[in-house]
Design a protein that fits this description.
Length: 227
């Protein structure tokens, strides 16, 4: 968080699982952006416009999401936001909690995007094409079970009905589509790789993993690998 006055009297703190750093000088802010990796930058627009422009330029170059706080909005500031594709801004006064809530929301969106991307890569590696309906059901299953383990304990009674409701179909159709996608994986992929991936949870003399086994192992893999 870059601010022109020391209102928090802090250099660093942990809030709701986020590590926050505070700087009160534009040059120090630019130096830190270049030296370290940050997910987001909150700028209180009290520096002069040239300093703000340099900060936003550096943040853009370092691929850092920017939140700006304005006491008053004017055309010059709007042009500045547009020039550096700043998507988030607050019109003051704004509380510290409001800012952190928005940061948490952005963090959650980014984590979900990374989870979806990593899950899609895994399914492609396992030989499931995104052209089959079961692909999207398994992808949604991994994301849902990653965040709520209760779905793993109730694949038939909870997960299938939830997916059916979201996709406007029936639980039976969801189950069959997932089964078909898994069958494709076992017919298209290297068998040694598959049995190694499932770490002995299925035997080589068995045809394939069950829906529950397949989804559970995908979730476990994502958790182990991390986002």
């Amino acid at each position: 968080m870059a601010q022109s006055n020391h209102i928090f009297h802090l250099d660093r703190c942990i809030y709701r699982g986020m590590e926050l750093h505070f700087v009160f000088d534009s040059l120090e802010c630019i130096h830190k952006l270049k030296k370290n990796h940050y997910d987001a930058l909150v700028v209180q627009m009290e520096f002069d416009q040239r300093c703000v422009s340099e900060i936003l330029k550096t943040a853009s170059e370092e691929n850092v999401s920017v939140f700006c706080i304005f006491e008053q909005m004017n055309n010059e500031m709007m042009e500045l936001l547009f020039s550096y594709q700043v998507k988030y801004y607050f019109l003051g006064p704004v509380s510290f909690q409001e800012i952190c809530n928005k940061l948490c929301e952005m963090k959650g969106q980014k984590e979900k995007f990374n989870l979806s991307k990593k899950s899609a890569e895994l399914l492609h590696t396992l030989g499931i094409p995104n052209s089959v309906q079961g692909y999207s059901y398994i992808l949604d299953s991994i994301i849902s079970c990653y965040y709520q383990e209760e779905y793993l304990k109730g694949i038939t009674k909870r997960l299938y009905p939830m997916l059916a409701s979201e996709h406007k179909t029936t639980p039976c159709a969801v189950e069959k589509s997932i089964r078909h996608a898994i069958e494709m994986a076992f017919s298209r992929s290297d068998q040694t790789f598959l049995y190694d991936f499932f770490k002995g949870t299925i035997r080589s003399d068995k045809a394939k993993a069950t829906n529950s086994q397949f989804i559970s192992m995908c979730v476990e893999y994502i958790r182990t690998e991390g986002l």
